[in-house]
Amino acid sequence: MSHALLVVDVQNDFCPGGALAVPEGDVIVPGINAAMAEAAAVVLTQDWHPAGHSSFASQHPGRAPFEMIEMAYGPQVLWPDHCIIGSEGAAFHPDLVTDRAELIIRKGYHRSVDSYSAFYENDRTTPTGLDGYLRSRGIDSVTLVGLATDFCVAYSARDAIRHGYEVTVRMELCRAIDLDGSLAAATVELAGMGVALV
Ligand code: VGL
Ligand code: ZN
């Protein structure tokens, strides 16, 4: 059976100097490049929001980034404007070697729904198509790396294990936002679901 490396959201806005900078988001890039060079198949994800996306605090008068709100589909963290379609912030980190990527999944492009997971939008029902792609390629195990450990990496790992993949998260090739203990919570939950955190 076959294995894929899933590289999550290694984009300028999630790196130091970006709109939603993850501490040390850029230090993982060389290690991710090395992992890609060894992988059988590489899939990249790219957070890709229209201007005025509903996950942006700027769209909710009186609200500030990192506050929680209730959306039609459930609770949602409000973020600074980030990863606007076509912007420099949405581009991959300039040192990320993207040549080996066989597929780039863009997510979060529907204005009214956020999308952390590479498999589903945050309504938990709208698929991105990644599951069908992996299955039709005969891929049954995935390793995740990238940003941010406690949001897009964790949501993707959770959906991957629910769909029956063997899942590994290489923690040293991820970095976290860590809002109110979100990193510890994600780590405990993923380990309990059977995700290998190495
Ligand atoms: C992410 C918050 C908002 C992520 C994306 O890549 O983890 N986090 N959009
Ligand atoms: Zn986003």
Automatic annotation (TrEMBL):
Pathway assigned to this chain's UniProt record: Cofactor biosynthesis; nicotinate biosynthesis; nicotinate from nicotinamide: step 1/1
Enzyme class, spelled out: hydrolase
The entry's keywords: Hydrolase, Metal-binding, Pyridine nucleotide biosynthesis
Top-level division of the source organism's lineage: Bacteria
EC number(s) per entry: 3.5.1.19
The keyword Hydrolase is annotated on this UniProt entry: yes
Domain Isochorismatase-like positions: 4-195
Swiss-Prot/TrEMBL GO biological process terms: pyridine nucleotide biosynthetic process
Keyword Ligase: no
GO molecular function: metal ion binding; nicotinamidase activity
Family according to the record: Belongs to the isochorismatase family.
Protein name, as recorded: Nicotinamidase
Native organism: Acuticoccus sediminis
